[in-house]
Amino acid sequence: ISNMSKELIDLRKKDLDQLNQELASVRAEQFTMRIKHKTGQLNETNLLKNTRRKIARIKTLITETKNKEVK
């Protein structure tokens, strides 16, 4: 199993509060990375894209979880 799918499996095990906490933490991480990128301290620029995609995954799971609760 690839690293991304392991991450997705771990995220699916979390409830809504845990997903929101994870989202906040990843956004803080993204902010730090963007500052490092602007100041030339971030060598691995692919991390920016990976973080952006992780945020999208978490938001998608939050939406899925909310939709399941409504039904």
What can be said about this structure in brief?
By secondary structure, the chain is mainly alpha-helical. It contains three helices and no strands.
Please name the defining characteristics of this protein.
3 helices; 71 residues; 82% helix; 0% strand; mainly alpha; elongated
Structural notes for this entry:
The chain has helices at 3-12, 16-38, 46-70. The chain is an all-alpha fold. Helix 2 packs antiparallel against helix 3.
SSE layout and pairing:
Layout: H1 3-12, H2 16-38, H3 46-70
H/E series: HHH
Give the uncertain stretches in residue-range form.
Answer: none
How much of the polypeptide forms β-strand, as a percent range? under 5%
Strand tally is 0
Question: Roughly what is the average pLDDT, rounded to an integer?
Answer: 92
Q: Number of helical segments? A: 3
Determine Rg (CA atoms, Å): 14 Å
Structural class: mainly alpha
Shape: elongated
Percent helix among the residues?
over 70%
How would you sum up the major sheet? none
Subunit organisation of the chains? single chain
What is the end-to-end distance? Answer: 31 Å
